[in-house]
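Hi R.,

Here's the chain you asked about this morning:
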Amino acid sequence: MALSKQEIAQRIAQELQDKWYVNLGIGIPTLVANYIPEGIEVEFQSENGLLGMGPFPVEGTEDADLINAGKQTVTVLDGGSIFDSATSFSMIRGQHVQLTVLGAMEVAQNGDIANWKIPGKMVKGMGGAMDLVASADNIIVAMMHTNKRGESKLLKKCSLPLTGVGCVTKIVTNLAVLEIKDNAFHLLERAPGVSVEEIQAATEGDLVVNGVIPEMDI
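And here is the predicted structure, written out as tokens:
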């Protein structure tokens, strides 16, 4: 059975390590803050100038002045700080973030990512994604494996304008966990009840399957 957006976030949260600074992009990545594993401390950074971002607020407790990069209301943990965009991007460009989690429209088997523009569609701009992918060494993409037409979003080559080149390290989709290396998608885990054959059929790019592929532990 394919994962929900919340379950994709839960699986990505398993990648978090103690004392890491983590940037969460717009969309599914913002949900990761709700699933921090017990026993570790993580500082979530939002590119609009927030460090120490907590989970989404309980309904009725929202503060309209506390938002993430996607303009969603969030909470701030004890010790958190708010600052301007210049300071935020100095933190990103200075490589003080250990993990970046982004959404994507397409990812290529060499690690290219397209996540900011569809030609002919109105867009607000590229946002901070260009800085994030240029500065981060560890990028995990949270995305659906296929688009609304059922076409693969894991491609041999991206067809949309690129955000970054050769930068993605791992992908968690509603069907699988994959690692990018040696110019191919390497299948690490599959969603509960989803077969390797289903994942192969939904992946346009080269997919490497070694041995028995375990189901995700969600």
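One quick note: The chain has a mean pLDDT of 92.

Cheers,
M.
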